[in-house]
Write a structure and sequence with these properties.
Helix content of chain A: over 70%
Strand order of the largest sheet of chain A: 1-2
Radius of gyration of chain A: 21 Å
Number of domains of chain A: 2
Oligomer: homodimer
Number of strands of chain A: 2
Distance between the termini of chain A: 34 Å
Mean pLDDT of chain A: 92
Largest interface: A-B, 51 and 50 residues
CATH superfamily of the largest domain in chain A: Farnesyl Diphosphate Synthase
Number of helices of chain A: 15
Chain lengths: 350, 355
């Protein structure tokens, strides 16, 4: 029963939620800034609105990975706190990216509510709020990890992953801009690069890297693990692209608009590779338009090219390659971490 | 002659420091464009190249150059070695990069039109709100530069913590400015000296005044926790600097200050309007309530006439003299002569400036 108290699945979530409250309270009383009542209320609301509301899979996976690396079912109180805190830093990082992405994409809703910049009184103040969210990570890390031998490594890790993600976002923005003029600019290399940098590093590599640092490891010795996780993250994003078009809106929680938004989606890239001239013309004439008739023509073409079957084959091959790469890793604990990630996403429907 | 050549080659005098500073920008930019942490496409390289030149260059670089000047004074030398020059200039550029990041985002949030005589970056065709991500890239470049050139130095973590803390204070000050302006648009009496001071302290003073000297102190091997008095003096100086800015926005010569001030139109929590609110009689307050924050030139003129009526130019000059006297007294109470020299150097660059 003691084991249960310290971190079985349900209890991990409860601890995770409690630690959010601790961290937020610390940020709202940060001695580095003299808060006014208005500014404290603003940040309180802003943080709840943007950091909460997701599934917290990235954050929780730091705790899960750390347990697997330690070969323990239960973590000590301090260990739980540190792992959850790093997990929340990743959730804060994602919140920062999403707030700014929504502004740049001119989006309307996020997780079933208006995007933060759409909220009355907020508008483009949201850009500074995104910056505040990013700065909260540095404040949290300094408060709880300064003095740890891996503190500088944590700072470098978060900074490097942020740099890769922002660079991937830049690539996405200017590629879409270029693609709107010439759809043939969309290809598998460009798509691979965008998803690798924009999503895979912070969603897959970062949680495991945090767990490795907590375990006292040197990340320079884990280049293979980084590569596997980036590959897994790429596969995850291809699934996202597929589900945007083929997923059940009831399940995925939104109506996909990649076609309307002129996205460099894996589906359109595959279509361009397989289409003959007349089919390509259908893409050139209908991709990136809001008109439901145009969207339907693109979807019909995807069916004609049998892209669902292409995706199934891609998924099967990706899974096999990932499993082979994982099982080539010398550490059994690391293998377990990587398989745990893979099995959470394999053949998911949302 | 060898000595003279070394002196010239290594950066004596203002002009040579500026030359070295400029050369180091080119080197740092090249490193950013070749960063192994990202696979650049030609399009993304061209974009970042242009974005950097547009936003990081173009200012006077006073903040950046003051790292070098301060470091020389702290070391008590006229000449720095090549390595010392490089490290000091690099930290100076990190501050310029930091300011560029803030200004790109501030211009978006303020819906501004021009910056340093050219359209704001987000106004440039093809850019628009991609500028938000460009701001983030600018911030990330600082971390990349620091990791590349300072990792392995005993003060590496201290530099990162310093930049992170100053960034946090600046973003928090910006937030305070944004929500205060929002509140003030509904109720001008929300503007007061305490709020104004807090905004300018956090939004400007830490990164413009404290950060350059703190960088020089770290380069000199100092522990910043032993220099809290220095921090307080520099924050006070930065506050005075911003009050000057507020004054010059309204009373400065546009030819000199390089822009036409719009604090009145923009409903800014300016030191001038705060002083006016403190001194105005009820009917004068009504003039402020009815005319402040409007673009109509007639309304602006009424506010300016009221500022004259309340003799705010004289109030400012008295404030300036008192600030100077207090700052000099605080500086001369510092135990280190080198630190005194650094602080006086900063103060004399800004005292009674007219742009």
């Amino acid at each position: 029963m003691a084991a249960g108290g310290n971190g079985a699945g349900g209890d991990t979530r409860a601890a995770f939620a409690r630690i959010y409250k601790t961290l937020k309270e610390e940020l709202l009383t940060d001695p580095a800034f003299e808060f006014t009542e208005e500014s404290r209320q603003w940040i309180d609301r802003m943080v709840d609105y943007n950091v909460l509301g997701g599934k917290c899979n990235r954050g929780l996976s730091v705790v899960d990975s750390y347990k697997l690396l330690k070969g323990a079912d239960a973590l000590g109180e301090e260990e739980t706190f540190l792992a959850c805190t790093l997990g929340w830093c990743i959730e804060w990082l994602q919140a920062f990216f999403l707030v700014l992405d929504d502004i740049m994409d001119d989006s309307h809703t996020r997780r079933g509510q208006p995007c933060w910049f759409r909220v009355p009184q907020v508008g483009l103040i949201a850009a500074n709020d995104g910056i505040i969210l990013r700065n909260h990570i540095s404040r949290i890390l300094r408060r709880h990890f300064k003095g740890k031998p891996y503190y500088a490594d944590l700072l470098d890790l978060f900074n490097e992953v942020e740099f890769k993600t922002a660079s991937g976002q830049l690539l996405d923005l200017i590629t879409t801009h270029e693609g709107e003029k010439d759809l043939t600019k969309y290809n598998i290399t460009v798509h691979g690069r965008i998803v690798q940098y924009k999503t895979a590093y912070y969603s897959f590599y970062l949680p495991v890297a945090c767990a490795l640092l907590l375990s006292g490891e040197n990340l320079d010795n884990y280049g293979d693990v980084e590569n596997i996780l980036v590959e897994m993250g790429t596969y995850f994003q291809v699934q996202d692209d597929y589900l945007d078009c083929y997923g059940d809106p009831e399940f995925i929680g939104k109506i996909g608009t990649d076609i309307e938004d002129y996205k460099c989606s894996w589906l359109v890239v595959q279509a361009l590779e397989r289409a003959d001239e007349s089919q390509k013309r259908i893409l050139f004439e209908n991709y990136g338009k809001k008109d439901p008739a145009c969207v339907a023509k693109v979807k019909n073409l995807y069916k004609e090219l049998d892209l669902e079957a292409v995706f199934q084959e891609y998924e099967n091959e990706s899974y096999k390659k990932l499993i082979a790469d994982i099982e080539a890793q010398p550490s059994i604990a690391v293998q377990k971490v990587l398989k745990s990630f893979l099995h959470k996403i394999y053949k998911r429907q949302k």
